[in-house]
Amino acid sequence: MTPLRIHRLDDTTTRVTLQLDHEPEGVVEKAGDALGVVNRRIKGDLANFKEFIESRGHEDGAWRGDVDPAPQR
Fold first, then answer.
1. CA distance 53 to 57
2. Which residue stretches of the chain have pLDDT < 70?
């Protein structure tokens, strides 16, 4: 199972959490897992996803409100 959770921390920040369960099968997959190939691939894919989302320049979700400026202290 691979749950993906997205949590809105505030009006401008969203946290994405991925939990991935992987059971390597066979010699090649087990060797790749032992060398950290799977972890590097997942981290790279998440970094690419972050870059893709942030490069779009506009929202694509359902929320269409305004964000008030942060209060000055």
1. 8
2. 1-4, 58-67, 69-70
Global pTM exceeds 0.70: no
For the CA atoms of 20, 56, 67, 16, the dihedral, rounded to the nearest 10 degrees, stands at 0
d(CA 28, CA 19): 23
| Model pLDDT, residue 35 | 95
Residue 42: CB atoms within 10 A of its CB come to: 13
Which residues have CB under 8 Å from 3's CB, separation 6+? 18, 19
Close Cβ partners of 47 (under 8 Å, ≥ 6 residues apart): none
Residues in the chain: 73
Neighbours of 38 (CB within 10 A): 15
